Amino acid sequence: MPLFSFGGKGSKDPMVDLESLLIDYAWTEVSNASCMDQVFRTRRYTFEVNWAYVNVSHRIKKFLLRSRQDSDPSTAPPLDPKVRSKVIQRDLCLFRTEFTNSSPSDQSFTFKTERKTTSRCDVSVQRGFRLGANVDVRLSIPIADGGQGAAPGAVAGPPGEVDGCRITGGLSGELHVTKTTGQTFEETLTWGVDSQVKVGQGSRVVAELIIREEEMTADFEIESTFEAVNDIPVYVKERKTGRVLEVLEIPKQQFAKILTTGKEKEINKIDDSKVSCVTNGTLRAIYGAEQVISVKSFNGNRPPSTVVEFTRPQIEEF
């Protein structure tokens, strides 16, 4: 389903293009373009805004997990009841082996394997701003109190409902979204075991490498603040050669006025050189939360005994 459509009567782009607003102002109010230049503007010229003169900061205002009724039952360490209804848990067996000892004495076997899985996070943006063809949103998953927290430098936000200790690798840090059509972040996790399994005489042991996968969907709202720290250069380039023909400077005192004219609902003026804009979107993450080593021993008609060990994965790449 498309995030938004173009064309059609009454259609409106929910993404405010801040760059085009600045370019339009520079071309019509700052430059001395002739009538012919005005008519053939897009054929003759390209424009580039130097955003280095604008400070941009992001703050997560809302991060709400969607309720999920299809959570799989699990023997994992219990989550908070409010979170369990919103985070799906499922166990995936990556490797299984069986050891049988038919000898009259105890035997030791090596249980060793390594498997890889991919964690995935899909981020889509429904409403907000863009800079030309791209967006510039930074998002980190807010964690619940008591977790280890997001990576240093992650975007500030409200306390979340997600246990930070269970979010693996790069998904626990800052996600930089740049594509208006949505963006996918992936990383490869390595899970492994290298243990000795003791099997008693006349016994059978089943050993399994299991990962506990979690899935969550959340709606977020991010407030982005733009502050012009100096006059903003706009480069006018010749379309054929890319050569810079002229540099137009937008006064910093006009920054807020330019961006809020006709866009009062989308962009809020803070002062003459500072504005804010809200971005709404959806995040869906599927990640390996922990590794489970399950060893079940079967001896005759007695019920099997079980040993379970929980460990964390190794992050191979992001």
The description of the largest β-sheet is: 10 strands, mixed
Helix-strand makeup class: mainly beta
Report the span from N to C terminus.
28 Å
The low-confidence parts are 1-10, 70-84, 146-156
Instruction: Please indicate the percent range of residues in DSSP E strands (runs of 2 or more).
Output: over 45%
Radius of gyration: 28 Å
What order do the SSEs take from the amino end to the carboxyl end, as H and E?
EHHHEEHEEEEEEEEHEEEE
Number of strands: 15
How much helix is in the residues? Answer: 10-25%
Number of helices: 5
Shape: elongated
Task: Give the integer mean of the pLDDT values.
Answer: 79
Give me a quick take on this structure:
The chain has 318 residues and is mainly beta. It contains five helices and 15 strands.
Task: Explain how this protein is built.
The protein has 318 residues and is mainly β. It contains 5 helices and 15 strands. The strands form 3 sheets. Strands 1, 3, 4, 5, 8, 9, 12, 13, 14 and 15 form a 10-stranded mixed sheet that branches. The longest helix has 13 residues, at 18-30. The two termini are 28 Å apart.
Identify the notable features of this structure and list them briefly.
318 residues; mainly beta; three-stranded antiparallel β-sheet; 5 helices; disordered N terminus
